[in-house]
Amino acid sequence: MDRMKSAVDYLSGEHNFSWLAVNLPGEVRNPVRNLHISIERHETCACVNVPCIKLSFRCDFFLYRMVRRIVGLLVKVALGKVTLDEIKVIMCEVDGDGKTAQQHIASDKLLDTAPASGLSLHKVSYSIELG
After folding, report:
1. What is the spatial distance between Cα 64 and Cα 67, in angstroms, rounded to a whole number?
2. Which one of 11, 32, 35, 37 has the lowest number of neighbouring Cβ atoms within 10 Å?
3. Per-residue confidence (pLDDT) for residue 117, from 0 to 100
4. Contact 15, 35 (CB under 8 A)
């Protein structure tokens, strides 16, 4: 849990998340996003009687599969398959040269997309009036 918490703290804030995004055909999005992640441990989950971890994401705009890829990354961090230093290297490379980061990710296979099961949308908020 401590490793995941450190990774959550590092991933939170304004960063270039192009290394996490899956671009849909014809879609061009600014990959710089302001992301906030919180993490909580619960002794039991609603449907199963086992300990679980609740991750909450807040962002100005989510890139396609961004949350599922972050969850997959955090699982790898928890299992010791990815270190915080590796995440820092990738994020620094993205700030300077996204191509280098993409090559690093592809060669090391750091990213797994978490399955959609177990993920739920809690709330959508807008800072402007609609309608």
Report:
1. 8
2. 32
3. 81
4. yes
At 30, phi and psi to the nearest 5? Answer: -70, 120
Q: Predicted confidence band at 107 (pLDDT cuts at 50, 70, 90)?
A: very low
Q: How many CB atoms lie within 10 A of CB 36?
A: 13
Q: Hey, what amino acid is at 12?
A: S
DSSP β-ladder status, 13-16 and 52-59: unpaired
Could you tell me the two tokens for 91?
Answer: 């994020």
Identify the three-state secondary structure at position 15: strand
Question: Model confidence over 22-51: pLDDT tens digits?
Answer: 777 777 778 888 999 999 887 766 666 677
- 32-42: strand order across its sheet: 13-16, 32-42, 52-59
Q: Strand, helix or coil at 20?
A: coil
Six token digits for residue 7: 């990774």
Q: pTM for this one?
A: 0.78
Residue type, 60: D
The beta-strand segments (E) located in the chain are 13-16, 32-42, 52-59
